[in-house]
DNA sequence: GCCAACGTTGGC
DNA sequence: GCCAACGTTGGC
């Protein structure tokens, strides 16, 4: 059981879209490090969803329902991009902003801050818990 | 809109 | 294999 954080630009695919779709293929990832993380996801893993750009906040939790498969949106056969299937799991009572994450010392090593351009990253269990606790308080 | 960070491409 | 040029992402 692992924990992850994925980013999405809400103009492309928002939390509202996921809520509406319930299941979605998390595709379009075009970065090897992010792809390698997608390939490590297992069914039942919990995934925090972060909206970048306009809103900059973690909105809730999704769950991995299918492990990686070839990304159907990739036309380049030489580059084996992959997607996973995610399912809407839980919306946070309170969205956690980037600003708030930055203000918490225990989260200072989180990939979201350390490597701001990476779109799929692992989370420590403790980091996942801290964020969930914030969101339900 | 600007810019830093970083990934990719292509010439050498 | 190096590195300059360029493109993209994402915070501010």
List the keywords:
alpha+beta; 137 residues; 6-stranded mixed beta sheet; 5 helices; ph1033 like fold; 36% strand; single chain; DNA-binding
What's the gist of this structure?
It is built from five helices and six strands. With 137 residues, the chain is an alpha+beta fold.
Structural class: alpha+beta
CATH uppermost class? Alpha Beta
Radius of gyration: 14 Å
Number of helices: 5
Counted beta strands:
6
Q: List low-pLDDT spans.
A: none
Report the helical percentage: 25-40%
CATH architecture field: Roll
- Percentage beta strand: 35-45%
Shape: globular
Sequence of strands across the biggest β-sheet = 2-5-4-3-1-6
Overall structural domain count: 1
Please report the distance between the alpha carbons of the first and last residues: 25 Å
Reading the helices and strands in chain order gives: EHEHEEEHHEH
Strand count, sense and barrel status of the largest sheet are:
6 strands, mixed
What is the CATH topology classification name? ph1033 like fold
Mean pLDDT: 94
Full CATH superfamily name: ph1033 like domains
Tell me what you see in this structure.
The chain is an alpha+beta fold and 137 residues long. It has one domain (3-136): ph1033 like domains (ph1033 like fold), CATH 3.10.590. Helices cover 28% and strands 36% of the residues. The chain has five helices and six strands, in the order βαβαβββααβα. It has helices at 15-21, 32-40, 98-103, 111-114, 125-136, and strands at 3-8, 23-26, 46-51, 57-70, 82-97, 120-123. Strands 2-5-4-3-1-6 form a six-stranded mixed beta sheet. A hairpin with a 5-residue loop joins β3 and β4. The longest helix is centred in the C-terminal third of the chain and has 12 residues, at 125-136. The mean pLDDT is 94. The structure holds a DNA duplex (12 and 12 nucleotides).
